[in-house]
Automatic annotation (TrEMBL), chain A:
Key words of the record: Cell membrane, Membrane, Transmembrane, Transmembrane helix, Transport
InterPro entries, per database record: MetI-like, MetI-like_sf
Family assignment from sequence similarity: Belongs to the binding-protein-dependent transport system permease family.
Domain ABC transmembrane type-1: 74-263
UniProt-listed PANTHER family: ABC TRANSPORTER PERMEASE PROTEIN MG189-RELATED (PTHR43744:SF12), ABC TRANSPORTER PERMEASE PROTEIN MG189-RELATED-RELATED (PTHR43744)
Name under which the protein is recorded: Carbohydrate ABC transporter permease
Membrane topology: Multi-pass membrane protein
Localization (cell): Cell membrane
Automatic annotation (TrEMBL), chain B:
Cross-referenced Pfam families: SBP_bac_1
Matches recorded under InterPro entries: SBP
Keyword Transport: yes
Leader peptide range in chain numbering: 1-20
Matches recorded under CDD domains: PBP2_MalE
Transmembrane domains' residue ranges: none
UniProtKB keywords: Signal, Transport
UniProt record similarity statement: Belongs to the bacterial solute-binding protein 1 family.
Name under which the protein is recorded: Extracellular solute-binding protein
SUPFAM superfamilies named among the record's database cross-references: Periplasmic binding protein-like II (SSF53850)
Automatic annotation (TrEMBL), chain C:
Keyword Membrane: yes
Name of the featured protein: Carbohydrate ABC transporter permease
Record's subcellular location: Cell membrane
Transmembrane feature ranges: 79-101, 113-134, 164-186, 216-234, 267-287
Domain of life: Bacteria
Record's keyword terms, sorted: Cell membrane, Membrane, Transmembrane, Transmembrane helix, Transport
Location of the ABC transmembrane type-1 domain: 75-288
Membrane topology, record value: Multi-pass membrane protein
């Protein structure tokens, strides 16, 4: 009976694997296309018949990418912004914890206010945000580029939801032992929240890495531009160099994949803390 | 605990950076010395403008800080400058955006400069370009580069249906396109561009239409309605795709050329040369086919303007004038393929190519769309009206009646 | 002394939420309030440079919007996107997550990356590839469907199928992120629960129904709410692929707002449009919260 069950499980695992493989293939196709196209000439990309693999492999697009533009400076800014956005990650986690595990006056209202910031398209608030930053004399500074996107309702909400799942008894026990609230947050809550921190860490990285609008709107000097802005600069007014765009985006995606592979380990670090629930 | 360490480290590093960058912002105001100009430019300025600006610095000692801004966000950037009254000293403004930013007082009135210097006198430029800088008799910029639309056609394919030259009249265009569309399934003759907001208006002018009379739209008058009826014949009999084919230039114009004739601007030249996979003898450009009255094309391009709130007025004007010199317009053409607005520049050898000269001839017969701030929206509404005609078989006269009323309301608002 | 401590205790929660709230207040809430004020004015590009010319128009913008057939059509389209798209995203990303969680070897962890790639593929690349896939004459999809005797479909060119085509594209893009969230949540389910169920002879489907899904309540709620908010603001796909056409059939409220606010510089009108959308989203979100509370109460 037991062996029967196991082989059944093996079989279903195979079936699931097959389904996922097929689905995954459909999913990754555009990505592969982007990657392979980065080795095609623009002429080949705009040909009548499209081949999946490049007919003539070329590194031209990558060469053009690095010849044009100030990519060293852009890379530095991008890294700074990405690092800084991890401060935002901490603020988001703190706020999520606050909303999940404390009772305080105005909590429901404040939380709805937080969520409501997600409900207005960014274009509508762009000019007001710019005017505020201008009033604060933060235009053309790195701080001005970083601040508007530092915290976000999506992340706060995500942390709140996951931290609601943590059982109160752990926190109570720590309090009885005389641990301070900050100690609890830093030494108990954050470690338990590893999976969601990892998810949010990936998102934060991607957000910072792809930062585009604010670096462009706030900067009055190209020395504050990021990689995404540099990539957009290569776009013509009426025409697009597809090969160059593909190469640029393939290049931009490599660090994201590395970060993903590092963090995904943590997503899977399960925790059994609520077993006693 | 490993994970927390990473996070902690990142947080510490990031706060250090934040603090450092806080300290930075005090230096910003002092950098606005009088001998540095800021210049906003759409696209990548490094190869196109920088060499010319360096020349300016060498001559005058005035430094030019160029900020390249991606085209996709250029308008956003101008809007923030308009709203905050802080921005560059000199900037490029697309001709269609001129009425907007003159209206918002973002651009400086430089009439005195224009009138006092014969080398940049209005009659030195193409009328179509010069018109985009003039509002209520005052000048707000100098024309810098110009675009006009011409007919691109496949010589070999047209020959196969008996045309050794590009169609010269509306009738010929229709005849050639119809014959070419008989080549097979998904084959067309001409592209009635459903994504180009100037398209119908351009044909209407060729048919003798006045688009606006005393700020009143004339879109439902016979001249415009007839020209749309004419264009609709193409989509009805299959000589033109009904909507944007979303094909790349190689797919639509190269190979067996599903769309062997279309109207577009100078930027298509290098796309075709580089990406269409055609031999030089296989394609050509020609002036637009003539309608009842003319073969009027539509002018676009960019103007150089001075930011209204600049603290550097004198140098800014000096720079604008410098950029508008004949030799500098020519240099800019060589660096960027953007065509010069000075008529005199066109005698230069670098523009002697026979295809380029077609644009020169077309520029004698080319006007911008009406320069009112609502025009962008009117153009978008036109595309929607045209969709009704082409896809929904709506009656042309009725559609244009509605469109006209809609436009009247828009202008009177 | 105990008084002091209790005040500190009462203030404690605020220290956790304060930094984030402060930033949100400054860079999101105040701008939203400014936008709200703008929605009652006729602000356009002239007014932007010269505030003294801005006229207060009361509810004019809102009244006009409800007589604007394009706006009404874009509301209809947006509801269509939400009603079909949101359940699809939640269902499919949950399915992928549960299936991937099935295995623990290299192959399955590689799949996680694969399903995540759509979210990190550059928009230009996405547009190029999908435009080609959807091309009615030579596109990949019609090519494949033709082999099994279906089609040719007009995809983005036909008002009847254009919306669905955009939904497919958007769902493809959205699965990755939500899958990650579900995967993270799946880690929180104690193994002991499954072991106990297995001893009771529960099969995989029963375990999923009685253990996995109930334990994912919080994350399902999260994904539903954020997906709903996101899809009410459906923008990227029509903006990149169709510009709202053909015949306005794919235009969404968010795209309508963009076209009016930025392409045509009718900032007042656009702001009013986005607040109508805002009201709809907040109502829908509050309903979701109410339902969740009720379920928790049971």
């Amino acid at each position: 009976m037991d062996t029967n069950f196991r082989s059944e499980r093996k079989l279903s695992k195979g079936v699931v694997g097959l389904i996922l493989a097929f689905w995954g293939l459909m999913t990754i196709l555009p990505f592969l296309w982007m990657f392979l196209s980065s080795f095609k000439s623009n002429a080949e990309i705009s040909q009548m018949t499209q081949n999946f693999l490049p007919q003539h492999w070329t590194l031209m697009n990558y060469k053009n990418l690095f010849v044009s533009g100030n990519f060293g400076v852009y890379l530095k800014n991008t890294l700074i912004i990405t690092l800084a956005s991890f401060v935002g990650l901490l603020f988001n986690a703190m706020a999520g914890y606050g909303f999940a595990k404390f009772k305080f006056k105005g909590k429901a209202f404040l939380f709805i206010a937080v969520l409501s910031t997600m409900m207005i398209p960014g274009q509508v608030t762009m000019i007001p945000v710019y005017l505020i930053l201008n009033q604060l004399h933060l235009t053309n500074t790195l701080l001005g580029i970083i601040l508007p996107g530092l915290v976000g309702a999506f992340a706060i909400f995500l942390f709140r939801q996951f931290m609601s799942n943590i059982s109160d008894s752990i926190i109570e026990a720590a309090r009885l032992d005389g641990a301070s609230e900050w100690y609890i947050f830093w030494h108990i809550i954050l470690p338990i929240s590893k999976p969601v921190l990892a998810v949010q860490g990936i998102l934060t990285f991607i957000g910072g890495w792809n930062a585009f609008l604010w670096p462009l709107i706030i900067a009055n000097d190209q020395k504050y531009y990021t990689l995404s802005v540099g990539l957009q600069l290569l776009q013509g007014q009426h025409t697009t160099d597809y090969g160059l765009q593909m190469a640029g985006s393939s290049f931009m995606v490599i660090p994201i994949i590395i970060i993903f592979l590092i963090f995904q380990k943590y997503i899977l670090q399960g925790f059994n803390v609520q077993a006693e629930k | 605990m490993h994970f927390k360490k990473i996070l902690g480290l990142a947080a510490v590093a990031a706060s250090a950076i934040l603090l450092a960058s806080c300290g930075n912002n005090s230096s910003k105001s002092s950098s606005k010395a009088n001998d540095t100009l800021t210049f906003w430019y759409g696209g990548d300025a490094d190869t196109a403008v920088k060499p010319i600006a360096n020349e300016f610095t060498k001559k005058t000692g005035v430094k030019v800080k160029i900020q390249s801004i991606p085209w996709s966000q250029y308008n956003d950037k101008l809007l923030t400058a308009a709203a905050s009254k802080t921005g560059p000293d000199v900037l490029v403004v697309g001709t269609t955006q001129m009425p907007n930013f003159v209206g918002s007082k973002t651009l400086m009135d430089i009439t005195d400069t224009v009138k006092s210097d014969s080398s940049i006198a209005p009659d030195k430029f193409f009328t179509g370009s010069e018109n985009t800088t003039k509002f209520n008799g005052k000048y707000y910029g100098l024309p810098w580069y110009v675009e006009t639309r011409v007919l691109y056609y496949r010589k070999d394919l047209l020959k196969s249906v008996g045309y050794n030259q590009a169609p010269k009249t509306w009738d010929e265009l229709y005849d050639a396109a119809t014959k070419l569309s008989k080549r097979g399934k998904n084959m067309y003759g001409f592209n009635v561009d459903g994504a180009e907001p100037t398209f119908g208006f351009m044909f209407a002018r060729q048919n003798g239409a006045t688009l606006l009379k005393n700020d009143k739209p004339q879109f439902n008058k016979k001249a415009m309605v007839d020209s749309l009826e004419y264009l609709n014949k193409f989509t009805k009999n299959g000589a033109s795709p009904k909507q944007d084919t979303k094909l790349s230039i190689g797919q639509s114009f190269g190979g067996n050329g599903p769309v062997p004739m279309f109207i577009s601007g100078p930027w298509m030249m290098s796309s075709i040369k580089n990406d269409a996979g055609l031999k030089d003898s296989q394609w050509g450009v020609a002036e637009l086919p003539k309608g009842k009255v003319s073969n009027m094309s539509s002018t676009g391009g960019g103007d150089l303007a001075v930011f209204n709130y600049t603290k550097n007025k004198k140098n800014a004007i000096k720079f604008v004038k410098f950029m508008s010199k004949k030799e500098n317009q020519l240099k800019y053409y060589k660096n960027s393929d953007s065509m010069p607005t000075l008529k005199a520049a066109w005698q230069d050898e670098s523009l002697s190519d026979s295809r380029i000269q077609v644009f020169r001839k077309q520029l004698n017969n080319s006007e911008p769309m009406p320069l009112i701030k609502q025009w962008d929206q009117i153009g978008q509404n036109y595309l929607k009206a045209w969709e009704q005609i082409a896809l929904n078989n709506a009656d042309v006269q009725k559609t244009m009646d509605t469109f006209n009323t809609q436009t009247e309301e828009l202008i009177n608002k | 002394m105990s008084m002091g401590k209790s005040i500190r205790n009462r203030l404690m929660p605020y220290t956790f939420v304060l930094p984030a709230l402060l930033l949100l207040f400054l860079f999101s809430l105040i701008p939203i309030l400014i936008a709200l004020v703008i929605s009652f004015t006729g602000l356009d590009i002239t007014g932007l440079g010269n505030w003294s010319t801005v006229k207060f128009v009361g509810l004019d913008n809102f009244v006009k919007l409800f007589h604007d057939s394009q706006f009404l059509q874009s509301i209809g389209n947006t509801l269509y996107y939400v009603v079909i798209g949101v359940p699809l995203v939640v269902l499919l990303s949950l399915t992928v997550a549960i299936l991937i969680n099935f295995g623990n070897n290299k192959f399955f962890s590689f799949l996680r990356l694969i399903f995540y790639t759509p979210s990190i593929t550059n928009t230009v690349a996405v547009a190029v590839v999908w435009t080609y896939m959807y091309n009615p004459n030579m596109g990949l999809l019609n090519n494949m469907l033709g082999k099994i005797g279906i089609g040719p479909l007009q995809w983005l060119n036909d008002p009847a199928t254009a919306k669905i085509s955009l939904i497919i594209l958007a769902v493809w893009k959205a699965i990755g992120l939500n899958m990650l969230i579900f995967l993270a949540a799946l880690q929180g389910i104690p193994r002991s629960l499954y072991e106990a169920a297995e001893l009771d002879g529960a099969n995989w489907w029963e375990q999923t129904r009685h253990i996995t899904l109930p334990s994912l309540r919080f994350s399902i709620f999260f994904v539903s709410v954020t997906t709903l908010i996101g899809w009410f603001q459906f923008f990227d796909e029509p903006f990149v692929m169709t510009k709202g056409g053909p015949l306005n059939s794919t235009n969404s409220v968010a795209l309508f707002v963009y076209q009016n606010g930025f392409q045509n510089s009718n900032f007042g009108y656009a702001a009013a449009g986005s607040f109508i959308m805002f009201a709809a989203i907040i109502v829908a979100t509050l309903i979701q919260f109410k339902i969740q509370k009720k379920q928790q109460g049971e």
